[in-house]
């Protein structure tokens, strides 16, 4: 249990730093699309931090359940805004604190209430296929909704929701690969001369979903930090729980637990709305006076947001 707590906590803190770096890259990049990000040192820093966080997260999955490890990810939601505010020397508003507190309480409640009755055995092929189909369907709906709403707060939240789905599915598949490859003592299991195909397929899924989640997250951070991060943090464990059900985990369905879970979900959703409103209000009030000239390639001046010029991630590089 101590290994899960330590690895999960450090992973959440590293992911928080990566989120701040990604937000800084989204704000500071002058060139559109992937070309602009490839020229951003902050973006490469965020990639390294995400890779380190993923390694620690996968190690934690070896020693604890999927839902327990995802629960520790709630710490990212607390650490990232505080880290960003500290590096920017711009304290969070009371509304942002309230939204963060509501979301953290809601997500923690959703994860603490249901006690899994699953096992530590890897799921069968049918369960894996069901999880893949579920992930593909939800990813299709969320990305389509983001495309329909196009730019704006709603689009950022839809992209963030899609990122949460991708990250949750990647975590679930990573745990499958770890369980297939490791024995009860945490050592590599002998395959008997053949390839461990479930682990190979799960690993391939992780290699597809993790970059997809990173790209979707980057699109979400165009609309701010707190609200998209809160959405990712909310969707990630909830969807991980759904995948756990597909894998054979069972959760209590008594009326008391269902009512408490509903209250927690409403609190988390309310927190995301408060954060989105706070960011929208801050952007509207700060746009006229928080613009400053910046020079781009080819001559001429372009206006860039002042927070972008002094982003938290910029101080990290």
From TrEMBL:
Keywords attached to this entry: Membrane, Signal, Transmembrane, Transmembrane helix
Location of the region described as Disordered in the Swiss-Prot/TrEMBL record: 281-317
Compositionally biased spans, kind Basic and acidic residues: 281-295
Signal sequence annotation: 1-16
Protein name: DMT family transporter
TM ranges: 42-61, 68-90, 96-113, 125-145, 157-179, 199-221, 227-247, 259-278
Domain of life: Bacteria
């Amino acid at each position: 249990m101590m290994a899960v707590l330590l690895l999960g906590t450090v992973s959440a803190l590293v992911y928080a730093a990566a989120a701040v770096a990604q937000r800084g890259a989204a704000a500071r990049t002058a060139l559109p699309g992937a070309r602009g990000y490839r020229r951003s040192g902050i973006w490469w820093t965020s990639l390294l931090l995400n890779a380190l966080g993923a390694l620690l997260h996968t190690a934690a999955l070896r020693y604890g359940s999927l839902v327990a490890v995802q629960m520790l990810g709630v710490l990212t939601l607390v650490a990232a805004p505080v880290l960003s505010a500290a590096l920017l020397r711009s304290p969070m508003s009371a509304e942002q604190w309230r939204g963060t507190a509501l979301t953290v309480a809601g997500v923690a409640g959703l994860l603490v209430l249901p006690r899994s009755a699953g096992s530590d055995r890897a799921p069968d092929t049918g369960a894996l296929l069901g999880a893949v189909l579920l992930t593909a369907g939800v990813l299709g709906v969320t990305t389509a909704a983001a495309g329909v709403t196009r730019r704006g707060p709603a689009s950022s939240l839809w992209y963030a929701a899609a990122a949460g789905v991708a990250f949750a599915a990647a975590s679930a598949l990573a745990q499958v690969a770890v369980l297939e490859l490791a024995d009860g003592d945490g050592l590599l299991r002998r395959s008997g001369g053949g390839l461990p195909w479930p682990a190979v397929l799960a690993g391939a899924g992780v290699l597809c979903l993790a970059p997809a989640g990173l790209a979707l997250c980057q699109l979400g951070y165009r609309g701010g930090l707190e609200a998209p991060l809160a959405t990712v943090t909310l969707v990630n464990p909830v969807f991980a729980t759904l995948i756990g059900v597909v894998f054979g985990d069972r959760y209590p369905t008594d009326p008391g637990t269902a009512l408490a879970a509903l209250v927690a979900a409403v609190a988390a959703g309310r927190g995301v709305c408060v954060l989105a409103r706070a960011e929208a209000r801050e952007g509207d009030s700060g746009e006229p006076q928080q613009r400053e000239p910046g020079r781009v390639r080819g001559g001429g001046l372009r206006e860039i947001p002042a927070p972008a010029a002094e982003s938290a991630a910029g101080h990290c590089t």
